[in-house]
Amino acid sequence: MTATNNDFNGNGKSPLIETSKLCKSYFNDELETKVLFDIDLTINKNEFVGIMGPSGSGKSTLMHILGFLDHHTGGEYLFHGKHAQEMDEDTLAKVRATRVSFVFQAFNLLPRASVLQNVMLPLIYHPTIPASERLERTKKAIEAVDLTDHSDYLSNQLSGGQKQRVAIARALVTEPEVIFADEPTGNLDSASGIHVMQALQELHSNGHTIILVTHEQATAEHADRIIELFDGRITKDTSKFKTRKAKKEDSLKK
Length: 254
Ligand SMILES: Nc1ncnc2c1ncn2[C@@H]1O[C@H](COP(=O)(O)OP(=O)(O)O)[C@@H](O)[C@H]1O
Ligand SMILES: [Mg+2]
What we know:
Layout lengths: L14 E14 L2 E14 L3 E5 L6 H8 L7 E6 L2 E2 L5 H10 L1 E5 L10 H10 L9 H11 L15 H13 L5 E5 L7 H16 L3 E5 L3 H4 L4 E6 L2 E7 L4 H10 L1
Parallel strand pairs: 3-8, 3-9, 6-7, 7-8
Antiparallel strand pairs: 1-2, 1-4, 4-5, 9-10
Helix pairs in contact: 3-4, 3-5, 4-5, 5-6
Magnesium ion binds next to helix 1.
C-alpha cells in the first residue's frame, strides 16, 4: 500500500484509516501471543462503524492501535495517508491530543471535579486551542450532550448515563476527527444506554467519525457498518447503506 496526499479515493470518500495485513502480538517474557491477524480495513471520514465480536476476539486491541494508544507489530497502518510507523513520539503525542478521542466503559472521570472541569481537561495542555477559547468550547460540548444544567455538579454526583455523557463531551471538546468508544454502554442500564447512544448518533449526524466497540446487537444497530472479529480476524464487514438524513428522520419518528 502506498501513502497518498490525495484525500479522496475512487468513491469520492476520504479514507481516514487504512490498514493492510495489520497484525498484533503481545510479548510477555519472550512468549508471543498473537492477537490480530492480517487486518485489512478502510474507514472513511464520517463513517459510524461498529466493531463486534466475542470477548477476547481483539476488539479493544484493534481500537487501541487505530487510536494510537498501542503499536501494531506487523503490516501497515495509515492515518490520513501517513504511516503510523513513521510518526515520531512528538507527532504521536500531537495526534493523540488533537485528532482522536476515547470513551471507555468505565467513564474515567475525575470524581471530585465538576462536569465543567472534567470536560475542559483535554484543552488544558492542548497544543493548538488557545486558553481564551477553553470555556466557550467546553460549554458547547456540554450542551451537545444535554448536560448544561449539570455543569457545576461533581462527576460523582451523577448517574452512570450522565457520567458517560460527560465522557462523550470530554471526547468531543477537542473536535477530534475520530471518536473511539469501547463498550460505552457496558456499565449502563438500558434506558441510560439508549441516551448515550443517542448522544453518539447526534455527533455522527454532525459529521464526526465514530468507531464503536460493542458486543450488544441493539447497540451496534446505531452503526452504519458492522465489522465482526473472531479470534483476531475480520470475519464479516457489512454496510447498511443508509444515509445520515434517512437515519435522522428515523430517529425523529421514534
Ligand atoms: N497486555 C496483554 N498481554 C497479553 N495478552 C493480552 C494483552 N491484552 C490483551 N491480551 C489478549 O489479547 C486478546 C484480545 O484481547 P482484547 O483486545 O481485549 O479483546 P476484546 O476487546 O475483544 O475482548 C485476548 O486473548 C487477551 O487475553
Ligand atoms: Mg474489549
